[in-house]
Every structure is written in structure tokens, then in C-alpha cells.
Predict the structure.
Amino acid sequence: MLSYTSINLINRHPLTQTLMSKTKVQSMPAKKKTIAFIPARGGSKGIKLKNITALKGKPLIAYTIEAAIKSKLFSDIIVSTEDQNIAKVAIQYGASILNRPVK
């Protein structure tokens, strides 16, 4: 493995400079957008409204939204829900909402 000092020496070498000046630099492709999609049903079969049930003082869905934000991997975080209470909590914690139909 090369150290930072080794890389600096290589970059300053006349042959490296010559090669770099003769090499065409291609532009990087546009950065792709990555979306976090979090499904959150209001009508859970086990625990009703479990996504907004408090766990250690925060709604359960807040932990998922905060983890997605903290990861810095996503350009947008979308919560898909049919429940307006879940939507309000998701917005409060920084997510966008995709309203889906009630079944």
C-alpha cells in the first residue's frame, strides 16, 4: 500500500507529469440520485399504528428516517403511507410523503 508521501512523490515525478499532460481527462457521469423508500402501513395486523408508537421517546419510524438521513447515501427519503398521522410524523423527521390508497 502506498503512503501519502509516496503518492506525492509519484505525482511530482517528471514522467507522471508528462503522462498526465498527454492524457485526455474524461468528464465524470452525472451523479445518480438514490432514493430511500420506506413503506409504512397504518393498518398493521400485529400492533396498530406501530410506526408511530413511541420507543425510547421517539416514534419507531423516526429511527428509520434518521438512519437514512445520517447515512448520507440518499438524495431523498420517501415514506409511503395511507395514514395521515404517520405522514405527519415522517414529515416532522425530514421525509417526503407518497400517499397511497387505503385498501
Observations:
- The longest strand covers residues 76-81.
- Residues 1-11 have pLDDT under 50 and may be disordered.
